[in-house]
Predict the structure.
Amino acid sequence: MNKKLISSAIMAILGCLSANVSAQDPAELASIQREVAIMENILSSALKQDTNKRIRAIQANYFVKQGVVFELGVRGSSRWQTIFSNAPNAPLPPLPEIDFANMDIEIISDQVEFITEDVVESSREAYQQAMELMREGAEQVREIAEQERDVGRKLRDLEREKRDLEFASRHDNSAEEKQLEQRKKALEKDIAKLEKQQTTLTKQQQQLRQNINAKHAEREQQQAAEQQQLLEQVSTSISLTLCDYGSGLRSLPNDEHVSFVLKGLGDKNTSLIKVFNKSDIKKCVAGDIKASELTKKAISYQF
């Protein structure tokens, strides 16, 4: 093989190795680490101020040839939603066979004990009102269900007695037949009264259950609206901060990215990802684009 060709190949390999080492140069990484740490503090302060301290944690990592990734946690969001959705948001059992004997209404209070003071301070009043409404509604449904069961038992007893009287009437020609017939008519009257009462209780129970479901739906809509508002606040705060202070990431290569993982703002069990190009951030810092445009340029998705 040609010596010049071998020499060229060796030089190319060494050049690649040199470039790889340079990309991970300790001094360069140290500069990026310092700048990222400063940006982490800036973002944390800005987000706490712009979102009324809803951001509880922020952590950054740098990935060579990829960029910086900031992980943000929304204070109390995931646990709040879990407790809220389980207290008691499960579908009610079908009518008319309702058994609330195993439903522990106090589960709400038990779960509330595990929520720390700082998690609920901003929405304590709304939370307590919602819990009270749900507890009250569930107790009312349970009370009516118990009344309905009592009526059902009485109806079954009267029906059984009526059948016994009819049997006795068919097989007894004595003077007691007239008394049996009178008792039968009285039973039929009581049965009709109980059936009417049972119909009323069923309608009341259905209405209460509809009210509970309506409250659940209203609560979910309110949560979705608050979630969307918070997302907009976070997105605006991030873009403004990058435009104002993004120049501090000067050691980050221009072809890399600044990404954000927003935990607690996506759908259930997912995070919202926002990816910004370093080149777009530089444009915003220079005033070539506005913060609102930078927000639109970011790639956003859930994962």
In short: The first helix runs from residue 3 to 23. The beta strands are 55-63, 67-74, 257-263, 271-277, 299-302.
